[in-house]
Design goal:
With 403 residues, this protein is an all-alpha fold. The protein is built from 14 helices and four strands. Helix 8 crosses helix 10.
Length: 403
Amino acid sequence: MISSGDTAWVLTASALVLLMTPGLAFFYGGLVRKKNIVSTIMYSFVSIGLVGIVWVLWGYSLAFGPDIGSFIGNLEWFGLKDVSANEAGPYSDTIPHQAFMIFQAMFAIITPALVTGAFAERMKFGSLCIFIVLWVSIVYAPIAHWVWGGGWLGELGALDFAGGTVVHISAGAGALVSAIIIGRRIGFPEQPMGPANIPMVVLGAALLWFGWFGFNAGSSLAADGVATNAFVVTNTAAAAGMMSWLILAWLVDKKPSAIGAASGAVGGLVAITPAAGFVGPMPALIIGLGAGAFCYGTVKLLLKIKVDDALAVFGVHGVGGAWGALATGLFVGVGYAALGDGVSRGEQIVNQLVGIGASFGWSFVVTGAILLVIDKTIGLSADEQAEGIGLDLTEHGESAFEL
């Protein structure tokens, strides 16, 4: 039977997850130079419009529709045909099928928005729009199907409670190959590259943290103990990630950075995402502490080797997601839940590594192919003059601040 309590919680969680995308826009917008704040915010905000349409037309059916070879869904649910607002679907007995669909739509919206941080300040807006439509259709939808829609990774037993592989590893891998193909910003790394507005960064991180309770606790698809545990461990890991990054930055850079605190909190949130329904508070503390350290180290390394992942998407989401997926295998059943029947911890760790490799590999290769096709047709990057002036004026004819 449809549960009004479960339905109310999942719809509320959907709204919380949607709020994360404007939160991401603030977070990313504050990190860039002032001449690119509007452009960077639009990278995230337009994803709501584009993916909101794609998901209804074909995205949901590809990701969660009836299975084709454990790889992709068919188009039987194109335009939400037979996706009922009154009856339960195949993924939950207690909420309407459309409630599940719209919850998953919010995940699909934010994931390509995450990728855009890698090429902030240099991709043309028209190219970005084409990229988002293609990326959510042929990168995100297959991975979501593999893990959650009845595909081969779910059948294998790879665990991903709320999106460590589906969202964060795929976004991180896409960001890394984007940074490589699009190349560095003019003057990177010699010239200062922001941030323009640190309060915006902290506000964005706070909105992400708030929305993440819907992201993780909502993935229970019920107002129950699993949602409660996910809520608790989400906050615990975020707090630990914040303090881990903050302390490292204090020790290495000699200043307790607000941006470091915000980035560490996001890293902790990323890392707990795949494990939120499978571990208790103490493993969450370890996962968050590890995320702060690993993500901070990766960001420093990429700067040293001069890879211009502008807003540290690979360092935070790719590495944080991979650590979280691995940690899910290491800690599943510790303090909450249990290992699957007949599955050893070693086997679970191997399954997690397969999930990490498959998600990373698919996203890296297919994202690269999408970018090369766009580059060879309409071009990816703004020209040097436009980049020098700033994309706010050259692409949108607007500026964030009137001085």
